[in-house]
Amino acid sequence: MRMRAAWAVLAALLLVGSWSLAAVAASPDDEARAEELVKQGLELARAKKFREALKPFEEANRLLPHPEIQHNIARAYEELGEYRAAYQWFSRALKQDYVYATEGREHLAKIEQELRRTHARVTVRAVPTNAKVVLRMSDGAEETYLSTPFQTWAPAGATTLVVTNPDFEKAEVEVELAPGEERDIPVELKVIPKMGFLRIQASVPGASIYVDEVLVGTAPMESIAHPAGLVQVKVKARGYKPDVQSVVVKENEVASVTALLESDGSEIPVVDDDPGVPNWLGPTLIGVGAVALVTAIVFHAQAFSTNDEANQVPLPAPGQDPNPDDEKRYNDLFNEAKDYQTYAQISYVAAGAFVVGGVLCIVLDEDGPEESAGSGVSFTPQLVATPDTVGAGALLRF
Fold first, then answer.
1. What is the pTM of this model?
2. 277-292: b or e for each residue (b if 16 or more CB lie within 10 Å)?
């Protein structure tokens, strides 16, 4: 058989020292070990144990890369019917000239015909070229490539490419491949923008803030993320001239902008930094207080009920030791009644605080925001955040 002749001739070449075509960096020990591994692989191949032959062949090629060893690896995969792997190894071997190059090209042509019946030939080109590509094929197999361009065979059907690079956004491309198709797949990754931060303040609170002509909010704004680079910041308010500034945002740094707005000569609306009491706050607090009061009454009733249940636990007769189960049940019920009473007391206090606060808000807001502001009395809810907690309260000014 032609195959047997191919294995045998290669063995003879190895015995007379055909390693002159191999990488010159190999040590004598590596050469000797590689030769021994090739002999093992040839014996297994002649016994038609192609799967077992792959291990010594591939180890020999690792120690001493040689096109004739790669040819043998390709032949083993071909005999196993794994045409994709066979095609790759034949292609690798044929990058150099060697004794069996003509036979290798013949095998490669036949394998290509077989592959075209069920596979498509895919060429992947990515920008940047050093992108990592994971190819997920329709048969569930995966291949990983650390750079592009590359060419491979993929089974017909749905195929997904996952393309990554640390400095670029990940891209996933899905394609539907047809048998025998030649498909070129270009992928261009988007650069991940380097981010900095903007802190924007204005002499007129509530002024509109535009960053590169896009409305982003109102003043003041603290540390909003923005891609690094030159940025135009525009601050506008009715009755004032727009303030336009250009600022350079640097990566991982905070760029501060302070807009000092000047009057445009028209009637300037009064900017009230302290708007006083919101008209909805008083009724809301009273409503919450009412709910807290109902909750307190429920807890109080439950405390009485549980206490009565505890008093119904049988007492021991005079001169007898108490029943342990009865004593435990009495203590549990008594403690439960105390807990309910505590909950009720807390709810009463909370209800009173909410109602009083609500009434106070309504009283402060009776004269309207303008008179209230003029009298110097204001009520402002406050929310204070720290690294460890969040606190809620109010600021009352007289």
1. 0.49
2. beeebbeebbebbeeb
